[in-house]
Amino acid sequence: MNAVITGASKGIGKAIAERLAKEGFNIALCARNAATLEATAAHIRQLAPNVQVLALPVDMSDKQQVLSFAAKVKAAFPVVDILVNNAGLFIPGALHQEEEGLLENLMATNVYSAYHLTRQLLPAMMEQRKGHIFNLTSTASYKAYPNGGAYSITKFALLGFSKNLREELKPHNIKVTALSPGPTLTASWEGFEAPPDRLMPPEDIANVVWAAYTLAAQTVVEEIVLRPMLGDIS
What we know:
This protein has helices at about 10-20, 35-45, 65-75, 100-130, 150-170, 200-215; strands at about 1-5, 25-30, 55, 80-85, 130-135, 175-180, 225. By secondary structure, it is α/β, with parallel strands linked by helices. Helix 2 (about 35-45) links the parallel strand 2 and strand 3 (about 55).
């Protein structure tokens, strides 16, 4: 069994990679920071010494790097059972105050990366008539909020991508799940001063991925929304 996780050097992506490796999946990981990525890969190899770990530094905002990553994944893993499109940037701010080009940059990282990578890995999934694609959307995909700005736009777009993909892949027996966490204890919330239990642990997101994957073949969870017990943080 093989899984591909983008944005996997820390946070939610790392937690998902660790969980799937523990379950016996070979793992292909990518992230921008090579040093952090290699540290994560080494940790996963220690956790699960019997699985293959492919870790490649990739800037997911660059289409050519995404295509190159896809080619290396296909060479290593002819079949991909789970694809987790997790790569993304969180940069809050009001639309009228954002730097020029921010929307284009966030669209490339948060949406186009998932589009291009999925298109590259789909043919093998379609041929084997199985697979599960998880798109890490957000509670920001459902509700606009002050200073959501370009980030919120991209998350609405990623949810639309996931919904469309779900409809297209029904006849091919490939599952698609939009997974939308609210505030989670990741680098995006560094510096946030609040009790630790105000943020969800990334391991919870990984556990939900595994739970959705292990359902019966005829069952698919289309959308999952998770929030801290006390709700979103304003």
